[in-house]
Design goal:
alpha/beta; Beta-Lactamase; Rossmann fold; 10 helices; globular
Length: about 325
């Protein structure tokens, strides 16, 4: 939080600082919108903040964010060089030191049919990056053995901790584990959106393992091909399946003898099958394990694990 505070405009910094003792360990988003109060999202709820330490869903009497506050914050986030972040902003966000991601809202600019960035930025969503080292450890026995890694799909809604969980799994597979024993192996991490490793100025802000090669801001289709041809991984780890190309690239990896661990948006098995591309992948038995996460109220916690090969549930947190 201290790294984020120094990048906020003075007005917002003072407001957030006055609530740090309450939010420091459980906040996951700070939202700034012109003409609205500062909003803090946390595992205990969503709150509007003000200097008098009020935290409730009532904006009367609260400090309202001004355009100058947004502009000052953007200047700090981009080190007064917004042009250096133009390419990244075309994805709708920027990544800052520490691996935190700042989502952008405002007037969208298009070059013909291609989104080309923002003219006026009117809102910021600062997603607080956290490492929960060891959060996957008690579930490793479902994902690999001493000599085998299961092709795994991790499913969860937004903010359920998919990225955090898969990053932790990557560390164990890359570095090795004790229970179950696993020596460790070479991994390629295809970090299409820069979230898994949180690359900033060419340096990963998050630890992803000592046997891990990172392809940052690389499209999955090219990443899978380049990785298999040049980096010789035993496992490819990526984020967010759900496009029409995914069937071919997963099939290519499996036929090449490479295991795949990846994620997808969804609430449960039925939900992900509504995506025709994912349904096709699942019904062709590309994955041996499907992990379902609980949701945003308890990020990184696992609700269910399915053994797809044998058509059975092997873990249920309700048992």
């Amino acid at each position: 939080m201290n790294n984020i505070l120094k990048l906020l405009c003075n007005n917002t910094k003072n407001i957030v600082s006055s609530h740090l003792s309450f939010f420091e360990n459980n906040a996951y988003e700070i939202r700034l919108r012109i003409n609205s109060p500062v909003e803090m999202k946390s595992t205990t709820g969503d709150f509007f903040l003000d200097l008098n330490k009020k935290t409730k869903n009532n904006i009367d009497g609260y400090y309202l964010i001004k355009k100058s506050d947004i502009e000052e914050t953007i200047a700090k986030l981009t080190l007064n060089s917004i042009h250096a972040f133009e390419k990244e902003m075309q994805n709708g966000y920027i990544t800052i030191e520490g691996g935190h991601r700042v989502g952008l809202g405002g007037d969208c600019i298009y070059d013909k049919d291609k989104f080309n960035g923002f003219k006026n930025i009117t809102s910021l969503n600062i997603r607080i990056a956290r490492e929960f080292k060891g959060c996957s450890e008690k579930f490793l026995k479902y994902l690999f053995t001493s000599d085998r890694i299961y092709n795994t799909l991790i499913v969860g809604p937004p903010l359920s901790g998919k990225t955090t969980l898969i990053r932790d799994i990557a560390c164990f597979i890359s570095d090795g584990a004790n229970s179950p024993y696993f020596q460790g192996c070479d991994i390629t991490l295809i970090d299409e959106r820069g979230e898994l490793s949180a690359i900033y100025n060419g340096i990963p802000q998050m630890y992803v393992g000592r046997r891990t090669d990172i392809l940052a801001y690389c499209m999955k289709k090219e990443g899978f091909t380049m990785s298999i041809r040049a980096l010789s991984p035993r496992v490819i780890i990526s984020d967010e399946l759900g496009s029409k190309d995914d069937f071919e690239i997963i099939q290519y990896a499996l036929k090449s003898g490479v295991n795949v661990i990846t994620t997808a948006h969804g609430f449960d098995m039925e939900d992900i099958k509504k995506n025709l591309y994912l349904k096709n992948i699942i019904e062709n038995n590309f994955f041996e394990r499907i992990v379902i996460l609980n949701g945003s109220k308890s990020p990184t916690t696992i609700k269910q694990i399915y053994d797809i090969s044998n058509d059975r549930m092997i873990y249920d947190d309700g048992d």
